[in-house]
Design goal:
The protein has 158 residues and is mostly helical. 40% of the residues lie in helices and 0% in strands. The protein has a domain of 109 residues.
Length: 158
């Protein structure tokens, strides 16, 4: 067994854990807020399903955005897709209010008018990017404590 420097252990742990804890694209809520002049970042749940919201955008809005070229982590593709939805006045839930207008109004564009409450404050998903850091630190600390064996030094032969 070889000894890893604690910093290396942390880096390895981060590399192992980050794909497992991948969330929605973290820059998208702020990009939507800026593009649509929203009072707050929209919840990740407008595009992602599940608890916590993560993975591929599969809500009706998320699917429409992907159909219009949305690519994860590509803010330009998000803004382009939003513009396309705005131009087409896409109404994923069929309630007569376009998806973009619903985002601006703070309602969920995936739900009809009767079941479309104001979006909750995001408490998880793409806005909770530091969520896994506690676990990451714990794993890194545990890896740093793994006993190691030093190589026996072999005296140079003369
Ligand atoms: Ca609608």
């Amino acid at each position: 067994m070889f000894k890893l420097h604690p910093v290396v252990s942390l880096a390895l742990a981060a590399g192992l854990l980050l794909p497992l804890s991948a969330n929605a694209t973290p820059n998208f809520p702020a990009a939507l807020q800026s593009e649509l002049l929203l009072s707050q970042e929209p919840s990740c749940a407008v595009c992602h399903q599940g608890e916590p919201t993560s993975g591929t955008a599969t809500t009706p809005l998320g699917s429409d955005l992907r159909a219009h070229g949305l690519m994860a982590y590509d803010e330009d593709s998000l803004l382009s897709a939003v513009q396309a939805l705005r131009t087409e006045k896409t109404d994923g839930d069929g309630d007569g209010v376009s998806d973009v207008d619903e985002l601006v109004a703070g309602t969920d564009p995936n739900l009809g008018a009767e079941a479309s409450p104001l979006l909750p404050e995001p408490t998880y998903g793409c806005n909770a990017s530091s969520e896994g850091l506690g676990l990451l630190a714990l794993v890194g600390a545990l890896l740093a404590l793994v006993p190691s064996r030093r190589r026996a030094r072999v005296p140079k032969q003369r």
